[in-house]
Amino acid sequence: MTLHEFYMARCLALAAQAKGRTSPNPLVGCVIVQAGEIVGEGFHPQAGQPHAEVFALRAAGELAQGATLYVNLEPCNHYGRTPPCTEAVIQAGIKTVVVGLIDPDPRVSGRGVERLRQAGLEVITGVLESACRDLNEAFIHRVLHHRPFGILKYAMTLDGKMASRSGHSQWITSAAARIFVHQLRAESDAVIVGGNTVRQDNPSLTSHQVSDHNPLRVVMSRQLNLPHPAHLWQTEMAPTLVLTEAALDHPLAQILQAQGVELQTLPSLTPTSALTALGERGINTVLWESGGILSTQALREGMIQKIWAFIAPKIIGGEGNMTPFGDLGLETMAEAIALERVQWQPIDTEMLLQAYVPPRQYVQGPIPAPNL
Question: Percentage of the chain with pLDDT > 90?
Fold first, then answer.
């Protein structure tokens, strides 16, 4: 590992501390090095707060003069909630800037680097670029596609079942695996389920105190045929948004709004329309914790980019028991969706599979409507 890579890796570690908190902004860390020593560092904690470069420059003070600044994403060169970072870097007297990834937003891409070079700074780009891209894969996806990055999480037995014949599913996996899930929620901006999951499981969908951050809890329900009370309506724990086709004068809508639940009406409620609405809110990452039918529709519409599958060494059997996906209409193994960049990780007695869905390789055609 080169020195540039060493300090860029530190930027990534700093940036990762704010996972789940920065939307609509990216995860950014910054390190300032003078004479081989780190003299300042920082990360962007949340939207509206100063950017990573500002925190690092404040920490470095006068030692920033003539120093090298490392940052995993190109410094901004436009006014938003905060002033341009490029101007702060120039005014601090930084000599060299090392950038991991050029900003993917076509509206600003390359302009920060151009401004720094115009001011006479040396700029080096592309250091640990792949790792920098991976860290901000959700931000990049939303910027380019105007919808959040979708992660599907589910747990199943060795024979592919998510619940028993009666619908009982607690617990397929061990406590250690559930901690992984709670951490994933803490690092997500929103977690989304269908109405059927609310009716059957009454979930809380919080990070269960593995972090002080809870995601926005999103429920898709066409007709608002939802139970009351439910854990998701306890908004003092975490915010809840219900997406529906029903009018907001529906009796349950008024009850939920009185409890602090937000409702948004969409003309047609589908995974695509739901994620489009969430993208307009600046949400980068959505964690799907839905049942098999809704997950199938989300997959077929291209709203799932990554899968986390927890596989437990249990066998429950049963032809009618719930599985992670419904009918995809596939006839041969050649038609199967082959996941990419597959990683396996043992957790207690289970195995966690993390993999990516190939772009544009979801299945087309009519599918059963989810029981939302």
Answer: 67
